């Protein structure tokens, strides 16, 4: 036993001497260092796959203090929100004026985030979408808003074509995995609701008004290089309380893009809604991505419960379940070279949280960002190995 131990010590001393004198030990150490350096570079390049990891803050800064601090710790620094006077204290300024926009941009900068996308732009409401008196003034204000937004350094506007009844759910606390709470929709629960004060609004009317808007706005967006990103109807049913919804099929988006062909007339690729229209998300990403039409991404997952297209009954899910192939979707964004803002959407409310802002609570966002970042690194490294 003593001889064996003496031999072991002697061999260990010889090996240590070899490393201290250079030789093989130095070569191995240098190779390891170079590999470590290469891994750092690769990880840096793989992180977020070149996209802008962002988070939505629709309830303002004060209501999202914890999420803001956590987002900075995760290095997910993009902020998506509207023009919110609550965070600026400005009450005597129109939201489309430069002073209001610059104040919002600065407020987000002060908390360490970069205001990248306006979601829910001001001066785009019922007058424009329903073709009512005063729409020309509303559109003129929208054009002013675009110019002032660009001046402030924000380049993407996410808007929708859902007047009166916008985003809609019939349940805000559907039990999900492990008791988490998600939002859900069932058309049967609202199909007998009365008409709104606007009565029946046909699809033809909605298309006519959308065309009027696009023809007025897209040429101005081109001049300043402002990306317009139309969000699909959510839910993607054909009508709610008499008001038709027209952006509820992929074919409708193709039609919209043809009305005013432009690099700045594009789409918010909200995965959940397009999946509930019956489309294969990765294929759609590649088709519109190669054409340069994807300006903004809502990365979410859903599950149809109706068996119909477009879906009339569905539930939100955690990002790692549901009907969408999330890996292949992320791979598609990387392959088409998408570099814009991408954010998690409609996340579950998790244990320990009050369901005060269904779909936008803190813990669900943390889970989603970690999941998305893992997918991003995976697709980048996978592409480099192939």
From TrEMBL:
A Pfam family assignment: UxuA
EC number: 4.2.1.8
Keyword Lyase in annotation: yes
Highest taxon in the source lineage: Bacteria
Function: Catalyzes the dehydration of D-mannonate.
Protein name per its UniProtKB record: mannonate dehydratase
InterPro entries: Man_deHydtase (IPR004628), TAT_signal (IPR006311), Xyl_isomerase-like_sf (IPR036237)
Presence of the UniProt keyword RNA-binding in the record: no
Cofactor needs: Fe(2+); Mn(2+)
Pathway note: Carbohydrate metabolism; pentose and glucuronate interconversion
SUPFAM superfamilies: Xylose isomerase-like
Sequence similarity: Belongs to the mannonate dehydratase family.
GO molecular function list: ferrous iron binding; manganese ion binding; mannonate dehydratase activity
Reaction catalyzed: D-mannonate = 2-dehydro-3-deoxy-D-gluconate + H2O
GO biological process, one term: D-glucuronate catabolic process
Entry keyword set: Iron, Lyase, Manganese
């Amino acid at each position: 036993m003593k001889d064996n131990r003496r031999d072991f010590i002697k061999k260990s001393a010889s090996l240590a001497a070899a490393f201290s004198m250079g030789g093989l030990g130095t070569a191995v150490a240098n190779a390891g260092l170079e590999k470590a350096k290469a891994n750092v570079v690769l990880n840096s390049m793989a992180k977020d796959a070149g996209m802008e990891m962002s988070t939505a803050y629709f309830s303002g800064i004060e209501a999202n203090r914890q999420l803001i601090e956590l987002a900075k710790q995760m290095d997910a620094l993009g902020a998506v929100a509207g023009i919110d006077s609550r965070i600026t204290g400005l009450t005597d300024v129109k939201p489309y004026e430069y002073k209001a926009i610059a104040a919002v941009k600065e407020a987000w900068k002060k908390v360490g985030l970069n205001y990248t996308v306006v979601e829910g732009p001001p001066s785009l409401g019922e007058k424009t979408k329903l073709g009512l008196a005063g729409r020309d003034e509303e559109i003129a204000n929208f054009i002013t808003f675009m110019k002032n937004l660009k001046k402030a350094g924000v380049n993407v506007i996410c808007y929708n074509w859902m007047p009166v009844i916008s985003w809609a759910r019939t349940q805000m606390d559907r039990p999900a995995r492990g008791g988490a709470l998600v939002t859900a929709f069932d058309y049967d629960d609202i199909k007998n609701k009365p008409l709104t004060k606007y009565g029946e609004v046909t699809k033809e009317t909605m298309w006519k008004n959308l065309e009027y808007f696009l023809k007025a706005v897209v040429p101005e967006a081109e001049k300043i290089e402002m990306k317009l990103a139309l969000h699909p109807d959510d839910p993607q049913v054909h009508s709610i309380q008499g008001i038709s919804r027209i952006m509820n099929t992929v074919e409708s988006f193709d039609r919209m893009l043809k009305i005013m062909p432009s690099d700045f007339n594009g789409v918010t690729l909200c995965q959940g809604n397009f999946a509930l229209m019956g489309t294969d998300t990765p294929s759609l990403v590649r088709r519109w991505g190669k054409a340069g039409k994807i300006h903004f991404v809502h990365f979410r997952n859903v599950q149809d419960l109706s068996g119909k297209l477009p879906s009339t009954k569905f539930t939100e899910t955690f990002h790692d379940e549901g009907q969408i192939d999330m890996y292949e979707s992320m791979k598609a964004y990387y392959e088409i070279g998408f570099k814009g803002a991408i954010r998690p959407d409609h996340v579950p409310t998790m244990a320990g949280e009050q369901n005060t802002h269904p779909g936008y609570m803190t813990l669900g966002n943390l889970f989603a960002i970690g999941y998305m970042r893992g997918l991003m690194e995976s697709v980048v490294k996978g592409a480099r190995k192939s």
